[in-house]
């Protein structure tokens, strides 16, 4: 293929998702809420194990932690300006304080990766500590960047 055409096509392919999010704020907000819910469906069952409501099984727990690592990366690209609509509780500060918001995301990613590493090692006491650290990153970000329930 002609080099220029191939370059144009690659740029178009990269830009397409961003354009579609900008074009459909409601769909983007919905996708973002869904991404957080998907994350919770792994995070909460892990919490019941950490709180000793369910037995700790090393391999199953490590697998959940790996899934969570992947899911934890999904919501952030969906915070596109102009998409605080519908069920979204996203505060305007997300876009007016991008550095602080980015810092919260990074703290969460570090914490989820640490939990996954700990789950791999299999020391439940350490897992419990890493899980608590991760839960604190949820709360920290919500305190600054999520509006109260309407
Ligand atoms: C949850 C949930 C959150 C976080 C946070 C942890 O299960 O829905 O938003 O954990 O409460 O502090």
Give a verbal description of the structure.
With 150 residues, this protein is an all-alpha fold. Helix content is 74%, strand content 0%. It has one domain: Four Helix Bundle (Hemerythrin (Met), subunit A) (Up-down Bundle). The longest helix has 26 residues, at 25-50. The chain has helices spanning 3-23, 25-50, 58-71, 93-96, 98-121, 124-145. The chain has six helices and no strands. The site of ascorbic acid has 7 residues, from helix 2 and helix 6.
Bound molecules: ascorbic acid
Helix content: over 70%
- Average pLDDT number: 92
- Hey, roughly how much beta strand do the residues contain? under 5%
By oligomeric state, this entry counts as single chain
CATH superfamily: Cytochrome c/b562
Keywords: Electron transport, Heme, Iron, Metal-binding, Signal, Transport
Protein name: Cytochrome c556
GO cellular component, one term: periplasmic space
Organism: Rivihabitans pingtungensis
Nutshell version of this structure?
The protein has 150 residues and is mainly α.
């Amino acid at each position: 293929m002609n080099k220029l055409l191939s370059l144009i096509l690659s740029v178009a392919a990269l830009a397409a998702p961003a354009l579609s999010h900008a074009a459909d704020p409601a769909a983007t907000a919905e996708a973002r809420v869904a991404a957080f819910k998907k994350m919770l469906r792994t995070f909460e069952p892990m919490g019941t194990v950490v709180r000793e409501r369910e037995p700790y099984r090393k391999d199953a727990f490590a697998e959940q932690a790996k899934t969570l690592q992947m899911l934890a990366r999904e919501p952030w690209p969906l915070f596109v300006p102009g998409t605080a609509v519908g069920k979204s509780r996203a505060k305007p500060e997300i876009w007016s304080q991008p550095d602080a918001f980015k810092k919260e995301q990074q703290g969460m990613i570090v914490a989820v990766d640490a939990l996954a590493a700990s789950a791999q090692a299999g020391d439940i006491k350490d897992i419990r500590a890493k899980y608590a650290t991760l839960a604190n990153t949820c709360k920290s970000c919500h305190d600054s960047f999520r509006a109260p329930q309407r």
